[in-house]
Amino acid sequence: MKVLVAPDKFKGSLTAAEVASAVASGLADVHPGLAVRVLPVADGGDGTVDAAVAAGFRRVRVPARGPTGEPVTASYAVRGDTAVVELAEASGLHRLPGALAPLTATSAGTGDVLAAAVRAGCRRIVLGVGGSACTDGGAGMLAALGARLLDAAGRDLPPGGEALSRLASVDLSRLDLSGVDIELASDVDNPLYGPHGAASVYGPQKGASPGDVETLDAALRHWASQVGPEFAAKPGAGAAGGVGFAAMAVLGARMRPGIELLLDLLGFDAALSGAALVITGEGSLDRQTLSGKAPAGVARAAAARGIPCVAVSGRCRLSSGELAEAGISAAYALTDLEPDPARCMAEAAPLLRRLAHRVAIDYFSLSR
């Protein structure tokens, strides 16, 4: 009997690979002869490159700029001429050297990584656009790829979203990604600007005050008027502080739900072959899970093959009805074993291994 263990990360505690390993170990404790296949997954946010590497892609490390311009080493994953680039690798919140920088943080590092992948010969690029520190409409990414963003005096704009309000012209003559196919992996459907846009919805998470949000939203409106106003309202234009907009408007990128795209890329359908049970999970099973997060995507794919799916998590805030709606037949949370959230995070791996004991006992007793 085969079990496929395909979780996302437990943010702040364990990577997806560490979650999968702990679950696999717990299953083996109870049923040593069980065939367990681990396939860590991601939905385009933090951990996307790691998931690709676990599935057989090769990690490539390159120099890039962080959100405030400091040098960092970022990674992308490659197999053949396909690259998986994770925006958070260079431009994520965790890359900020200190305080948040809502007005000046840049996506330039993502452009650095994209440029490196293209120079290496990659012709298909999957760009995961979650977890960004910036709200610059993707301007920094485009500048790193060769675009020039100029003010009225012909000077290059400084980095960050606030500066976009001073944009007078855009020169794309040195930006050439012809022959490169870019797919955006995201579960965000926000437009670029407005009450549901990048600044209004996600700006506060990146440190933007109400005044900053107004400034950034106006700057993004101006940016769109110069670059491609017809793309501003497209679902996903507001992803990663507007990187989705720049990728679609200038780079010709196509948006796909992150988990669907990543499951295809990781060979998930083939991994399902022969499985009697799928175990997925993430740190918190909640309403966001139902909106295209990794566990919901995994459960949907398993259901399409008639394979039951259960989930493990740090905590579960979904009712049994909501879980069933997502295709998850049962959920097991670390808080079932340890009510203290701090201890759950600090001792996530051993607790998860114990939790997998319950999964194995419950499932195999029911299947006899």
Automatic annotation (TrEMBL):
<dbReference type="InterPro" id="IPR018197">
    <property type="entry name" value="Glycerate_kinase_RE-like"/>
</dbReference>
<dbReference type="InterPro" id="IPR004381">
    <property type="entry name" value="Glycerate_kinase"/>
</dbReference>
<dbReference type="InterPro" id="IPR036129">
    <property type="entry name" value="Glycerate_kinase_sf"/>
</dbReference>
<dbReference type="Pfam" id="PF02595">
    <property type="entry name" value="Gly_kinase"/>
</dbReference>
<protein>
    <submittedName>
        <fullName>Glycerate kinase (EC)</fullName>
        <ecNumber>2.7.1.31</ecNumber>
    </submittedName>
</protein>
<dbReference type="InterPro" id="IPR018193">
    <property type="entry name" value="Glyc_kinase_flavodox-like_fold"/>
</dbReference>
<keyword id="KW-0808">Transferase</keyword>
<keyword id="KW-0418">Kinase</keyword>
<comment type="similarity">
    <text>Belongs to the glycerate kinase type-1 family.</text>
</comment>
<dbReference type="GO" id="GO:0008887">
    <property type="term" value="F:glycerate kinase activity"/>
</dbReference>
<dbReference type="GO" id="GO:0031388">
    <property type="term" value="P:organic acid phosphorylation"/>
</dbReference>
